[in-house]
Amino acid sequence: MTEAVLQLDDIVKSFGATKAVDRVSIDVGRDEFFSLLGPSGSGKTTLLRIIAGLETPDRGRVLINGEDVTRLPPYARRLGMVFQDFLLFPHRTVAENVAFPLKMQGVSPAVLKQQLEWALDLVHLTGLEERFPHQLSGGQKQRVALARGLVSRPSVLLLDEPLANLDRELRKEMEIEVRRFQIDLGIPFIYVTHNQEEALTMSDRMAVMNRGVLEQVGPKLELYERPRTGFVAAFVGSANRLHGEIRGIDGAVARIDWGGNELLGATPSGAGVGDRVDYFIKSERIAIVPAEGAGNAEGHTRLAARLRDVIFKGQYADYIVTLPSGSELVVSGPPALDGLTPRSDVVLHWPAEAADVFAAEAP
Amino acid sequence: MAAVNPGERLLIVGQSVMLLLLYIFLYFPIFYVVYLSFMENNVWPFPPEFTLDHYALLESMSDFHEGLINSTLIGLGTGALSALFACLAVVGLLKYRSRFRAALIVLYMSPLFVAHILIGISTLMFNRGVLDMPGNIPSTILANTTYGVAFAFLVILAQLLRYDWRLDEAAMVFGARPARTFWEVTLPNTWPALLGAFLVSFILAFNNLDISFYNLGAIPTLPTIAWGTLRHGVKPELYALASIVNALVFLILITLYFLLRTGLVKLGHRD
Amino acid sequence: MSQVEAVRTSPLGRLWMNRNLRFACLTLPGAIFILLFLVAPLMSIVVFSFWRTESYNLIAEWNLDNYRVLLSDPTYLTFLWRSTVMAVAVSLISLVYAYPVAYLIAKHGGRYRLILVLLTAAPFLTGIILRVTAIQHILGPIGLINMALTTFGMEPVEVLMYSNVASAIGLVYLWAPFMVLAIYLSLLNFNFELLEVAKVCGARPWRAFVEVTWPLNWMGTAIGIVLVFVPTLASSVTPRFLGGVDGALYGTILAHQFGATGTWALGSAMGVILFALSLIVILGIWRAVNLRRSGFTGEEA
User: Fold this and answer.
1) Residue B88 to residue C232: CA distance in whole angstroms
2) H or E segment at B46?
3) What secondary structure does DSSP assign to B97-124, as a single string?
4) Is residue A66 exposed (0-12), middle (13-18) or buried (19+ Cβ within 10 Å)?
5) Which chains touch A (3 or more CB pairs under 8 A)?
6) Domain extent at residue B35
7) Which residues of chain C fall short of a pLDDT of 70?
8) pLDDT, tens digit, 9 for 90 and up, residues C22-45
9) Residue B266 burial by CB count (10 A; 0-12/13-18/19+): exposed, middle or buried?
């Protein structure tokens, strides 16, 4: 990773009695698409506002290109930002909206014209300069907001759930476009969202926040494949979440009882027999085969179940299975596997390492 | 809204009648006075005999022009000061959190609960006794502003509550300092409210008697001229005066209404 | 990064970045103005009320004479009593009339709400003298009503002019729109669907009004009452021109002290009593509002 453009150092921010941001430290490098992922109330928007200068942290520092800007007001930070509700100036044309940051910086008219044209061209809005926001569609407003954020070539672009107000297809399109902008421009994007699919599609690195606390930060695959806390395991990717109790430990592998079924998983550090655990197994890591002729793999969790439903999703399918105990699991796999029809008996299995096991949180 | 049942329908009819009667009660005297101002016979002006004599008489009254100018000056001064103070205050109260908010709002609304005559006599005595200011137009403007600022405050507050302050935040992120933000973003989206506040304060001060009277002494304004005329029995020029003032007020109100309407429809409001 | 440095190093710039300072600079000018030109003068008349007047000058001799006169002389007390009764009556009449009207506009006004309510408020702006003139010419002995009656061969109605009834009508004419406005604003935030709930629970219309509408809008109603009561209590012009010889009210006498007689100290004392009475009423209603725990609106937060 190249040298950090943005550094957050032990940020704390409280509103009254609630801690919105609890000791968060993050570094973002030059070429990164960095996502702040979390449910509403997790503090991710507050953190973004602190970076922008719209809030001042109680403790901690914000550094941009090595300079401490923590106490600096937003208009001195030279950042770009794209807002969730677009927040275009309703009394200004598209051109005036996009040119606003340049106007505030007092650049010469020649430079302004050049940058404006560049930005409008980038988002494919050339020709709409004289329109007003209320005359634009949602997607067009989004592009204007993007252009306005990028026009001054900021050192960082902040994005606050910018695609949340777009309909699904448009969102999918824009996800790819926004990612492309970031790669082409070579500046870091800090992207706040509650949609983990979106984050996984677009980011290089991700941070997951929960109730003000930074659960995990790292390359996205790392968060996906090796979640470090139960919350990350549950939030990133679609996983089946099970609760069980450790019955026995064989070295690194624990045998966990789940409603009468035995699960195998990596022993959480410091756990002992009798401890309750949260057990996560991602849908696509479960192998599903028809019951007859199913083998017996060593070191695998093996469960007998009945296939209740098959939900076709195009390139893959979700298989909903019911266990004798009554619980349900979701398995993702190739569509139209042989022998798998609703109401047929199946066997699920997966290796112990495929599951993520954590000590259960206090009830 | 829920369907209207017969009982409620009766209620609506009753209330509508009351509203209609209220309008008649409020407006009939006004229109009747306008009618009278054009009539020869002021006592029983039927059948109508049209005349402009009363207006001519009014025009020739020595004090009339002076009073008109003075009233206008007082109105302009009060309107400007009230709108200015109120605008600053509302922006400050809505943009920033502070534990003094509630107290400040109470303070700004307090003039509404003080009788005009108290404001008039107290400012008279205070200016004379403590500040050693003579009674004149500037001191009247100041006295009227105390009342006007409360009205201006309400008008501006009512409109600015609907403004999306996040637009200001966006502007700040893009490099606009607070004053620049106000000029480039807030003001263009909220100016009808400010103008409305100015107009309301203007009208109130223009037509004010109890506050202005004590602070002016012998200096004439339209209300004090009317007061003087009224004391000697109602004269027809009074009707002409009333009609002119009413026309002016309603002209301003119509402007105000259309300003509020455009403010509602367009520009920078949260849905 | 030159702009960044400029903001940071200039001491004035650093000062200005303080949010509390910005808040103060915005809200304090008007606040100081009000304190200086409203509160200070009011406090000064308290001081003056303890002084004397001699040949049109205030003499700073502290005494209680003014209050002694005001509180012992039955004439002054009568005027105060009369004004209070008038204020209560006018407030009640305004309340009874304004509530249904405001209710109608708020609930059924639709997109005409704004203009309907502004129409009730508009006459207020035409100024007190002109409105009193208009009323006088309608109610007076040679006013429209009586002239119409005599023309059609009927007796003129005496009570309509130069009487307390006339004053009352005039005062309602002047101040009732404030009550309409206050109640209307409160009803705007009122969730009328709550009445549906009450109906389903078995409440008849009047009961629903008493149990639901009235308590939840009590704050606006209280404000409306105060907005009508205070000016009516202090009214001087209206009773002077409509009330006739016997119709003088407290405010008229108060105004008199600042007119020909020039007895400013006594006038100050009268003003203080008027202000004190208004404050008592305001505080009383404020207490009633807090005690009622009106729950402010019927809407979700």
Assistant:
1) 32
2) none
3) --TTHHHHHHHHHGGGGS-HHHHHHHHH
4) exposed
5) B, C
6) 1-51
7) 1-17, 55-58, 141-142, 156, 158-160, 291-301
8) 888 888 898 999 988 899 888 888
9) middle
In a domain, B271, yes or no: no
Contacts of B189 in chain A (CB under 8 A): 90-91
Residues 6 or more apart whose CB falls under 8 angstroms from that of A315 comprise A335
CATH, range C64-292: 1.10.3720.10
Rg (C-alpha) for chain C, rounded Å, is: 25
Q: Which of the listed CATH numbers 2.40.340.10, 2.40.50.140, 2.60.40.1180, 2.60.40.420 matches domain A238-359?
A: 2.40.50.140
- Provide the chain C residues 157-196 that lie in CB contact (below 8 A) with chain B: 173, 176-177, 180, 192-193, 196
Superfamily of domain A4-229: P-loop containing nucleotide triphosphate hydrolases (3.40.50.300)
> Which of A5, A62, A63, A67 to mutate to test binding with chain C, by most C CBs within 10 Å of its CB?
A67
pLDDT tens per residue, range B129-157: 777 777 688 888 989 999 999 999 988 98
Parallel/antiparallel/unpaired status of strands A157-160 and A189-193: parallel
Q: Per the omega criterion (within 30 degrees of 0), is the bond before B47 cis?
A: yes
Mean pLDDT of A29-48: 91
Higher pLDDT pick, A3 / A291:
A291
Q: What is the ipTM of this complex?
A: 0.81
- For the entire predicted model, the pTM comes to 0.79
Neighbors of chain B by Cβ distance (3+ pairs < 8 Å):
A, C
Residue with the bigger pLDDT between B236 and A24: it is A24
